[in-house]
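hey so i finally got around to running both of the ones u sent me last week. sorry it took forever, my laptop kept dying halfway thru and i had to restart like 3 times lol. anyway pasting them below in the order u listed, first the sequence line then the structure token line for each. didnt double check formatting much so if smth looks off just lmk and ill redo it

first one:
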Amino acid sequence: MFDISFGEILLIGIVALVVLGPERLPTVARTLGALVARAQRFVASVKADIHQQANLSGLDGLRNDIQDAANSFKSQMEAEVQGVRQVMAEQSAQLQQLSGEASAPFAEAERSIHGALDLQAPAAPAAVASALVVENSAAEPPVRDENQLDLFDDLPPAAVQPATESRPHA
């Protein structure tokens, strides 16, 4: 800290002994030691604060670097998403165009098929409905598979009868 040699410390001690006297010298030495210790603690506290501020400024720099990298990544991802959306819009337009081109032969076939049919005399709706009812009623009931569980059919007669066994009460 200070460049004081042993001879200089000895000279200061002799002057203090002569000026203060042997009675007050120990109390002054203790007070002086306490003041030096307090000064050392203050210097250590200031050093710690400076070191902490230096670390915080380093962390602030690191935080700024990470924030810049995150912003750069975000802008890059937004650009990529925009590119993908643009490509998807182009592909959608192409698909709609191809769909229109592919539906043209079907429309022409429909015109040629329906053009040959007589669509001017439509069938009476009542006649069509009665034909459907007759057709549905004439159909056979579906074949029942005994291995399948059908929850919506009526129970067989054996299952409807209540059990007649009685249990003894415990």
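and the second one:
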Amino acid sequence: MSITGTLIIQMIVFLILVGFTMKYVWPPIAAALDERAKKIADGLAAADKARADLAAADKRVEEELAKSRNQTAQLLADAERRAQAIVEEAKARATEEGAKIVAAAKAEADQQTVKAREALREQVAALAVKGAEQILRKEVNAGVHAELLNRLKTEL
């Protein structure tokens, strides 16, 4: 065999091998590579979508936090206003009660003063009667006694 015959046979075998490879081996490899490229592209798209969703969720979370902070601040302000109103109302009631207690104490003091004066008058009258009795026992002079009784009466 000559070199040319061998070379031609090798070329024919090579072409058969290339044809076999192109028909049976290359399509599954190309399909696997295409599928892998598609999975990678889908994964990148999903990652971009997830990143966008995360940014939107972060934005919503910040908005909700700001809203809850505002509501909390408003509730605290309302509570402080209510507490201040309750304190003012309690002060007003306490002042009113204090005024009532002072008025009652003053009225009671006035009553005690009147009672003390009455008791003092009764004691003075009893002393005056005792004094008159003693005077009458010692001496009976109607003019002097009348004058003494008039002075006692004016003093009372």
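quick thing i noticed on the 2nd:
Residues 3-138 form the longest helix (136 residues).
anyway thats it, ttyl
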